[in-house]
Amino acid sequence: MSDDATAFVPGHITGFFSAHPDDDPAVAGSRGAGVTLSHGVTVTVEPAAEAVVSLDGETVEMEPVVNVLQALGVTGAVTAESELPLGAGFGVSGAMALGTALAANAVFSCGHSENELVTVAHQAEVEAGTGLGDVVAQARGGMPIRIDPGAPSHGRMDGIPARPHIEYVTFGGLSTADILGGDTTTLTAAGETALDALVEKPTVERFLSESRQFARDATLLTDRVEAAIEDVRDVGGDAAMAMLGETVFAVGTGLSDAGYDPKQCRVHPAGATLQSE
Amino acid sequence: MSDDATAFVPGHITGFFSAHPDDDPAVAGSRGAGVTLSHGVTVTVEPAAEAVVSLDGETVEMEPVVNVLQALGVTGAVTAESELPLGAGFGVSGAMALGTALAANAVFSCGHSENELVTVAHQAEVEAGTGLGDVVAQARGGMPIRIDPGAPSHGRMDGIPARPHIEYVTFGGLSTADILGGDTTTLTAAGETALDALVEKPTVERFLSESRQFARDATLLTDRVEAAIEDVRDVGGDAAMAMLGETVFAVGTGLSDAGYDPKQCRVHPAGATLQSE
User: Min CA distance, B206 vs chain A (Å)?
Assistant: First the structure.
């Protein structure tokens, strides 16, 4: 058992998805596509008498993280620092769950494989209702395409071979639990149509155009998001909405060119990883 | 079509493996485990009237690279710069094949997915007889465990969740084609035993101990490699032989501590990736 361990988990913006619930949380998940970000969450775990979770210096209730510690049978203090806001479509809760799994496995010498740790984090996130596909995407990195739903032993993944710069602005949050807990029939039909189109032509341009179409068809587009996407399109850029948040992301300098003051980052080339010893 | 594109592919040292030939080069491959390195190969592709391949400034014959260009239906000049020696167990030929696939897809707007490009490079390497498992490992990064042989649609992978520093020394090359072209029965039995043991406990220590046992059981250990591994063990370090080369790799500072003058790098956290635009 070492004193502590730290993992970095990239943020993940989903462009479109379909929801695939199942009684088995390793089988449940989403299909869809997104982009992992060089902005992410750094998670440190150290042994402690009781489970305590903090995010950016504040103690927080974070059910997926508590679920991960319980599944691994360990008790630790989890300290997370995030470059991304919580609840705005960046997969921060999934990142905290996955980072906790990787770091706790190292600290407590649990002896699990990477797939096992991804599975633990995916199940924890599904059971908490905070996400369906972020964890497996964040474990992979790049621009992940989730061909099948579920944890690694169930889901197949692919990726778009491109590493553009990414800009994003956030106007506010949307509740993943509320949307996933409601009727997802329309959303899922739109997500499956978008996935078929992307698999046919796995390019950045196709990903953005299908993401835009999905936001409209799934009736998730808000006025502020729609206006910002239009502003980017008006200056010749390409943008879409992050699922699920009032967040707009663009490739290259689309949002800057349209007069916004976005955060700037890159597609992250790697999945979640322990920091080098 | 852009002017050129560049990809970085990490080196890959296999610790142990079993050979699984098949008439279909996407199904053929190896099972086993290894470590990807932050030292690797940078591959640039640009359009050209005929296929030309260079490695560190010298024009070379490189069948896997030519196979990749043919499979993609493009003609280009491939320029590779390698931090690692060719033919000494670092997966340089696999890196050149995979880097060519990623970069050529970007230059010529071929529109393939990442899995498709990994498949093209894996098939090219298998058909050339220069490797069986490096390409899929290099596409994944980290410390890859190849659970099943073959390209992404056939092979399942997992990983050891650890990122130690790595040292290595090379005394010379071994011919992958000669060894894979001979009787691999003993080697494959030893590799499957090692894989079962690693899957049971996917840690760095188990990986190294099983790799050492494999080198002995597969009768691939040379005197110089055996002596260097013993030297590292004598100072309390952990080392094994790279398959297939007269190369010793150690975690941490094992080779330095034993008085060698090794190259030093890290486990690479990412798979092969295009350089950011």
Answer: 10
Residues 6+ apart with CB under 8 A from B185: none
> Helix or strand or coil: residue B202?
coil
**Residue of chain B minimizing CA distance to A253:** B277
Q: What mean pLDDT value characterizes chain A?
A: 95
Torsion A241-A242-A243-A244 (CA) sign:
negative
* Average pLDDT taken over every residue of chain B: 95
Give CA–CA dist A123/A136, Å, rounded.
11
Count interface pairs A-B at CB distance under 8 A: 104
Strands A52-55 and A76-82: what pairing? parallel
Model pLDDT for residues A4-44, shown as the tens digit of each residue: 999 999 999 999 999 999 999 999 999 999 999 999 999 99
Write down the residue that tokens 């501590």 correspond to.
Answer: B257
Residue of A163, A238, A264 to mutate, interface with B, max B Cβ within 10 Å = A163
What domains, with CATH codes, occur in chain B? 1-277 (3.30.230.10)
ipTM score here?
0.94
pLDDT digits (tens, 9 = 90+) for A198-252: 999 999 999 999 999 999 999 999 999 999 999 999 999 999 999 989 999 999 9
Contacts of A203 in chain B (CB under 8 A): 109, 111
| Confidence bin at A1 (pLDDT 50/70/90) | low
**Cis preceding linkage at B244, omega within 30:** yes
Mean pLDDT of B29-40: 98
Angle between helices A185-200 and A204-217 (to 10 degrees): 160
Contacts of residue B165 in chain A, CB cutoff 8 Å? 276-277
Name the burial class of residue B181, with classes exposed (0-12), middle (13-18) and buried (19+) by CB atoms within 10 angstroms of its CB: exposed
Whether the CB-CB separation of B263 and B38 falls below 8 Å is answered with no
Contacts A106 to B, Cβ<8 Å: 161-162
Q: Which residues of A58-75 are buried (b: 16+ CB within 10 A; e: fewer)?
A: eeeebbbbbbbbebbebe
What's the CA gap between A41 and A83, in Å, rounded? Answer: 6
A172 pLDDT band, cuts 50/70/90, is confident
User: Of B105, B162, B270, which is closest to A274 when you measure between CB atoms?
Assistant: B162
Distance, CA of B23 to CA of B21 (rounded, Å): 7
Q: How confident is the model at residue B269 (pLDDT cuts 50, 70, 90)?
A: very high
pLDDT by residue (tens digit) across A104-114?
A: 999 999 999 99
Structure tokens at A237: 């850029």
CA dist A78 and B180 (Å) reads 48
